[in-house]
Amino acid sequence: MSKYPRVGISALTGKSDLSDLSGILDACEGLGVDSIELPTYDMDLIIGGRVHKPHLQRLKSACANRKVAWTVHGTLGINFMDEPHRLERHWQVFQANVEVAAEIGAINYVLHTGHIRTSAAEGVDAAYARQRDYLGKAGDLAKQHKLMVCVENVFADTEGKIHTASASRLARELAIVGHSHVGATVDFSHAYLETGFRGGDVVTEVTPLAALAPHLHIHDSFGRADDIWMYADGEKLAFGHGDLHLPTGWGSLPWDAILAACTFPAGVIFNIELDRRYWYAAAETVAATRTLAERARVAKA
Predict the structure, then answer these.
(1) Beta bridge pairs of residue 151
(2) What are the pLDDT digits (tens) for 24-54?
């Protein structure tokens, strides 16, 4: 294994019957990455909270005998800050996701941090308490399967109707949870969009979360909220608005300042999340991301 952090890439989603998954994974391996992140949230692997065994077997077959590590991005709708009467449903789907991840030998499982409708302070605090409780349970389950739950920072809506944790707030929440198998996924572009719209400094926001993050989502943007009307995705690119998932270096994220400020855990994975539109630049994105990884400061194991 390289002395530098590993570089991975998220596989594109394909046909719902997974018949083209082997070819997709071949393309990822051909880029020379160390790990591949599977978008299990969009593979029809879970039906009504239970693992769909025939599909799981297709997934395992496509993944077999490959020389990469596996990570997974589970169901995006899992929300441990949701109303109490729905939490067991979220938990059931989470358990199924962990079963899938364990079956393919994944090392990291990416879970989005929760969100609620904007509320009075006591409502927000209660939602965070619910999330902390469930993250503790999630860590216990992950530990049984030798898996790390990596909670990802996202960004709130531009209308002020949804509350979610900033990167620095998520760092504080995870520190309170204090579980050996619950860490973070830093999505730098998400934090850039959040600070670009609501104020603050992206480097200051991500630094405390980076220390807890064995997993990173690497893609670029301009930190500009998607708050004006545009006709096509090409126009969003022209304006530089929104969560573009651009190749590394195409946007304006201050990578030099981020790398100077952050220290990452040993074994950290720099996982590329590249929009399908820009997959033609996948090879240059892997090369640029590996250059970042080689400059990263990593804590001793």
Answers:
(1) 111, 184
(2) 999 999 999 999 999 999 999 999 999 999 9
